[in-house]
Amino acid sequence: MGFIYALRSEQEKTKHTSFWAIHFCVPVMGALLFLAYYSLYASTADSKKLKMILEITTTFFPLLISVIVGLNVALEEKASHFQTLLAVPNRHKNMLAKLTYLYGSGVFALFFLFLLFVIGIHLLGMADTVQLGMLIGAAAGMAFCNFIIYILHLFLSFKFGLGLSLFWGVFESLQCILYSNIELKGVARYIPFAWSMNWVQDILSRQIFNYGTEKIWIAALTTGGLLLTLLWFSHWEGRKNYVIFSS
Predict the structure, then answer these.
(1) Which residues does 25 contact at the CB level (< 8 Å), separation at least 6?
(2) 114-148, pLDDT tens digit by residue?
(3) Which tens digit of pLDDT belongs to each residue from 153-201?
(4) Cβ distance 160 to 76 under 8 Å?
(5) What angle is formed at CA 230 by the lines to CA 225 and CA 233, rounded to 5 degrees?
(6) Which pLDDT value is given to residue 241?
(7) Phi then psi for 161, rounded to 5 degrees?
(8) 9 within 8 A of 95, measured Cβ to Cβ
């Protein structure tokens, strides 16, 4: 019950904020942008158009995550300097609930984006230009691969604040642009913010099953990152400036 209560608490905290407005408006704008691109470049090869929209989505996702997570953690900081999270037993449940709420909202926004896009394509009579199976596979992979990004930005936002989270989000998005133009090999494929772009490229080249061992390692690294972050948060005493101020 503690975890369910914590989830409901997260929902209440965001009820009167722009949290859900962002999660609805960004997918709508993204879908309209993709539909305009498909309409204006109807003569472009379907594979190139699909590659473009998937790479754009992958590129901007880390930046959006940094904004959403950073603003959410800033609410906790502004309300009570994190004391509502830190002054409870089993505080890792609160952290896990916050991560679940943020990640679930992001996955919803991602699939909502592609749902609107698919509906729009059908309304425009261009449904045959999109390989639906490939689109769904790419979206599922993005959702899976970006879980580690949520974990990372929760840590950065709690430990250092909104500014560093945003800075790192910009850096990650710039790196995604770089990775879209080169083929990573070996240990470079284990860079966390390259996972989504690698997944998209593997889906488009139909090589997704050629990296089964890599996907297992990615799942293991994600699990390890989650456990380490929960362990850290269970012993975190808040920002040093607040601790000094309160004492």
Answers:
(1) none
(2) 999 999 999 998 888 888 889 999 999 999 999 99
(3) 999 999 999 999 999 999 999 999 988 888 778 888 889 988 999 999 8
(4) no
(5) 125
(6) 60
(7) 110, 180
(8) no
| Residue 222 CA from chain centroid, whole number | 13
Q: Tokens 């594979």 appear where?
A: 47
Mean pLDDT of all residues in the chain?
89
Distances (CA, A) of 25 to 21, 35, 84, 111, 164: 6, 15, 30, 13, 25
Helix (H, G, I), strand (E, B) or coil at 227: helix
Q: Is the pLDDT of residue 243 over 50?
A: no
Cβ atoms within 10 A of the Cβ of 27, count? 21
What b-and-e string marks burial along 180-198, b requiring 16 or more CB atoms within 10 Å of the CB? beeeeeeeebeebbbbbbb
Residue matched to tokens 């379907």: 46
Tell me if 201 sits within 8 A of 60, measured CB to CB: no
CA distance 50 to 191: 24
pTM of the entire predicted model: 0.92
- Burial class from Cβ neighbours inside 10 Å (0-12, 13-18, 19+) for residue 131 reads middle
d(CA 232, CA 234): 5
Instruction: Looking at the chain, list the stretches that DSSP marks H as alpha helix, in order from N- to C-terminal side.
Output: 2-13, 19-40, 46-80, 83-86, 91-123, 132-145, 147-159, 162-179, 195-204, 212-235, 240-246
What span, in angstroms and rounded, lies between the C-alpha atoms of 176 and 194? 6
- Does residue 21 sit in helix, strand or coil? helix
CB atoms within 10 A of CB 47: 12
